[in-house]
Amino acid sequence: MTSPGPSCWRRRGGGIDLFVRLTPKSAQDRLEGAETAADGHSYLKARVRAVPEKGAANAALEKLVAKALGVAASSVSVSAGGAARLKTLHISGDPSNLAEVLAALAGQPDGKKPSGEGG
């Protein structure tokens, strides 16, 4: 199986590591799909309304990703890049199920889950 390009996640120990580029102080909380940087690394673009103070933006990101993936907020944690714009989140759960949902999210520019039917 081949993927359409570099992935913004990798399977790791009971879950998935997700690479995210976070923009705090945005107008709304949303996921904006995957993007590949000039260096070839891919990441999921995310925006949150929270300010980057005292971990508020990180907490908002964890909550946003958990809701989008349909997992408990406690299953999502920032594992690297806590004070940086580029972050790594670890999401605990079945890697196959998480990868399937992430693949759909990465292609959805509005950050919404696909409805399962339609075109």
Automatic annotation (TrEMBL):
Pfam families on file: DUF167
The family this protein is said to belong to: Belongs to the UPF0235 family.
Record's protein name: UPF0235 protein ACFOHJ_07565
Source species: Aquamicrobium soli
